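INFO worker-7 received task bundle
INFO bundle size: 2
INFO processing item 0
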Amino acid sequence: MNGAVSDSAAGASPAPAWSKPRRGLAAVRVLIRITVPVMAGLILGAVILALLGRNPWTFYSDLFRAGLISHQGWQAMLTRLAPLLLMSAGYVVAFRAGLWNIGGDGQFLLAAAFVAGLSPTLVAGLPRPLALLLLGLLGMAVGGVWTLLPSYLKAWFGVNEIITTVMMSFIGMNLAALLIKEAWRTESVMVPQTDAVPLDQLLPRLGGTTIHAGIIVAGVVVLAVWYVLRYTATGLRLTVLGASPAAARHAGLPVRRLIVGAFFASGALVGLGAALEILGVWGYMRADWNPKFGLALFALVFLARLDPLGAAPLATFYAVLDIGGHEAARTASLDSDFILVLVGLILLCLAAWQVLRLPAGERLTWWRCLGDRLRLRDTP
């Protein structure tokens, strides 16, 4: 028996000598694919800064110092990264299935409102680990449930989910504010907000830093989503559904169940991100609070080619811009809206780079389609 195993092992062909260099070359190409357009976006931002009379070098130095290099900066960046990773993973699940979950901000805020509104009661009445676990599950449940109506209308009636998720997002954001103002408003302050959870009852901090344990939860969840999508039958079914719903039906896949399940999982991951943000950073929620993570992550996920691991570095860079950009803008006496302009320029350059990397024939087809959409038609 051992001899047979030894013979088979000896007869097995070794891995090709060029396999590792090829993997290294692929990693370099991915790095170039991300770095070049990001640098182009930063250069365009530098041009705008110069036109506004600011020093681009000083601005970017302040940005990366405050968002990455300083002791407080990298801790704040990793803290901000936790909900970004989970929202990105939620978007990837939906988009892999060919479903346009545009309502991430509404799912996020409504889940955050429920977690913030009920957390003082649960934390006061239950052991801390159990209370935090239940609140995390509550955030997932609220985010998932808020996708049920769009998924049902999509699966059974073919209603465009872009319209329904945008409508549900609008309702969710305003319902969250209404709940905070009416059902869970605290009497301790004049500003409409929920009661605050004591700091020592929030998610534990890591190693004496301000980084909460939610970043570990987010990292584990992203790895789990990547594994499911890449190596399991469920991931294959979602990919087939996203590539061709007709082919999925022809193959006998439960298309309706997959649509509802993918939508629910997407919203649940967004809701978990909201729970970690409340339980790890704030401990309460104000009625006017809205971080507006959705639109930027929406673009980043597509630029990462719907890969949860590929979206992680882009989400990290966005966290650096978000944390350090506001400090740099204050130092340069700029409005914080300039950070949104900078993020938009980077996303535009990333998208343009994807188009430029297309084969010549596909690129020509893309430009023709764009021209057809933009062409002004003669009116009768």
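INFO item 0 finished
INFO processing item 1
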Amino acid sequence: MVAGFLFLPLLLLGSVTLGNQTMLPVDNLFQWQPWQSAAAELDVTQPQNGLLTDLLIENFAWKRFAVDSIKAGDIPLWNPYLFAGMPFLATGQHGMLYPFSWLFFLMPIPKAYGWYALSQLWLAGTLMYVYGRILHMKRASAYIAGLIYQGSGFMLASTAVFPMIIGAAAWLPLLLACIELIMRDWRLEIESQAQPSTARRPRLTVLWVALGSVALGLQILAGHIEITYYTLLIMGMYGGWRVAYCAWRNRAAYPLRVLLLRPMGWLLAMVLVGLLLGAVQFVPFYEVGQLNFRSGETTLAQVRSYAFPARRLLTFALPNFFGSPAQQSYVDAFTGEAVALPGTSEWGIKNYVEGGLTWGFCRFSLSCSVCLATGLSVIGCRLAVIGYQVLRPPICNLQSALCNLSDGHRPAFLRR
């Protein structure tokens, strides 16, 4: 089942992992000199997708600098090639402290992008499957949940531009799973105290706290502090709801203080240890953030203006309703012919990466179709077995009767 989560990533990224292509949008370089001077000679008119430029002029530059520095025996604390020099390792978005980023040291950087993306999409699907199973979902249901998560619009759009985002977002299901397991152990502890005669099951709370701490530390090292912020918010709301629910169910038997303090202590310990594990990246990043020229310059009104307009709800079901930066033409609905555009077809308020909000109906339908076909196959096999068991006695009786009526020369299909 876990290997099944490689299907979608390989389907999307096969050419940049097993093939000879790269995820880097190299054609975007022809927007600037000196490459622009050779654009006409090489018949390059416009980039296939101009929105992917950050992957090339930012992320690739970070990876190249980090790899070259390590190979030269230097720790890349300072980048002298930007402005008059600036901190590098402290900024975090390079993600070079993240274990999966070590792929960039083991293979050529253009090829490593494909394998990194594949590994993170696989990880996201697998961890969502694990979370589903912990919630007592059936295997097929948990598998569908994993496919939807790894194939969501947010994950796929971020894969193409910001590898550090999917690296951070992939760990959310495991963190929620650890919260669930901690609360489950606490519920079993309460039940065993209420009924001392029942057999005590082993408690693994410390293990779940340790696992969640490691997951949070890795999530921080992935290199996108906004996703860490969102993850902590979701963990807080989810953990608060689970603690409140457990306390409400057992409020008559135990004091509220007893019901709240211990589980909240375990959850807080998981978060604090996780922050400590990621402190090697988080603390320097916080220090650099205090010196950022944007600090304190954004007003609440500006932040609220970043919100999605109401019409953007359409993209939950129709992600290309406002066009796509990768499409430079449209199909005429009356003639069926492709009509070229001077730019791209995108005309939405938010760009395609920031507005990647699709619910994933197509992926959900595909997943349901696969599971339905599998289920029908299993049902068909079971019905065949049942039918064989039901029909075998009369068929055997009929065979014996035909054999008795024959002159000893049995038909070939009735011979034993």
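INFO item 1 finished
INFO post-check item 1: The chain has four domains: 1-170, 172-292, 310-356, 374-414.
INFO post-check item 1: Residues 377-416 have pLDDT under 50 and may be disordered.
INFO worker-7 idle
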